[in-house]
């Protein structure tokens, strides 16, 4: 595995942008970060914002780079990897993927075999440096490779290593897709507040600040979610009435079924792109 050289990003979408921004903010030299992006408007924006070298051609971007970050859609990943396979065999880089549903075995095979691959699943709060990333390393990744991958992804938030790659689809379902669940909750809370007669602006502020405050209590304290819920649920009070309505509607089962559906979809993506 090549430990020298800089970091090359293939794809310049939101997640790549957040990682590049995090690296630059942490003092990583912009000259050591390269990025390939086919869309001219995105290339120009990235060059202006971060001052990193930008390429149209993927092969030019990865030349001599010790770490490759594959940040393209799952549907085009195979074609991108197969085109880069000769360079992967010659350079032996650390390959970091942020594509949902694409396994490390698929990536290694498409890149010509015997490739050090770290499969990751970040989420969109990475754009604020507040994300979380599940990470799996194949057998080709040594201790230095794990350290480098963790340093890269920690620029976007916290990281969690997963030992069994079969569980990465569950990571995608829980945290990768998870922000959308919270957005749906916020949307629903605001709409319900408006239905009870609150002005839209007031309902939005009340819903969003409640979610923010609850999240901070979970993160900054030691108590589990169940204990915090019990503390705020006074017997016979308004919160108990709401919780009972949630439970009667099968809230827990609905959440479990939603995350299971997302997990299954991740497996289907892998099979569809093999």
What average pLDDT do the residues reach?
93
Low-confidence stretches: none
Number of strands: 8
Q: What is the first-to-last residue Cα distance? A: 25 Å
* Total domains: 2
Q: CATH H level of the largest domain: which superfamily? A: NAD(P)-binding Rossmann-like Domain
| Cα radius of gyration in angstroms | 21 Å
By helix and strand content, what is the structural category? alpha/beta
CATH class of the largest domain: Alpha Beta
Q: Tell me roughly what share of residues is in helical segments.
A: 55-70%
Query: How many separate helices?
Result: 12
Global geometry: elongated
Assign the CATH architecture of the largest domain.
3-Layer(aba) Sandwich
- How much of the sequence is in beta strands? 5-15%
Q: Which H/E pattern describes the elements?
A: EHEHEHEHEHEEHEHHHHHH
CATH topology of the largest domain: Rossmann fold
Instruction: Please give the order of strands in the largest beta sheet.
Output: 3-2-1-4-5-6-7-8
- Main β sheet profile: 8 strands, mixed
């Amino acid at each position: 595995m090549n430990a020298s050289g800089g970091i090359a990003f293939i794809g310049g979408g939101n997640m790549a942008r957040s990682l590049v921004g995090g690296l630059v903010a942490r003092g990583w030299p912009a000259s050591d970060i390269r990025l390939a992006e086919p869309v001219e408007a995105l290339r120009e924006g990235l060059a202006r914002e971060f001052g990193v070298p930008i390429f149209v051609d993927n092969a030019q971007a990865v030349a001599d780079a010790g770490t490759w970050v594959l940040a393209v859609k799952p549907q085009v990943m195979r074609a991108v990897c197969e085109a880069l396979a000769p360079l992967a065999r010659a350079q032996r880089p650390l390959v970091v993927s942020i594509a949902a549903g694409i396994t490390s075995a698929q990536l290694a095979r498409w890149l010509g075999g015997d490739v050090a691959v770290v499969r990751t699943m970040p989420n969109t709060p990475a754009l604020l440096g507040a994300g979380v990333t599940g990470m799996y390393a194949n057998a080709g990744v040594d201790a230095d490779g794990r350290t480098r991958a963790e340093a890269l992804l920690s620029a976007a938030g916290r990281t969690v290593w997963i030992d069994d790659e079969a569980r990465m689809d569950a990571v995608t379902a829980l945290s990768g897709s998870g922000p959308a669940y919270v957005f749906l909750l916020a949307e629903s809370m605001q709409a319900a507040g408006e239905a009870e007669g609150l002005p839209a602006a007031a309902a939005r502020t009340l819903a969003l600040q409640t979610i923010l405050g609850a999240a901070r209590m979970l993160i900054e304290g030691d108590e589990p979610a169940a204990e915090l819920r019990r503390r705020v649920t006074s017997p016979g009070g308004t919160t108990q009435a709401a919780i009972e309505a949630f439970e009667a509607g099968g809230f827990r089962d609905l959440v479990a079924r939603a995350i299971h559906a997302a997990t299954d979809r991740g497996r289907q993506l892998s099979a569809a792109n093999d």
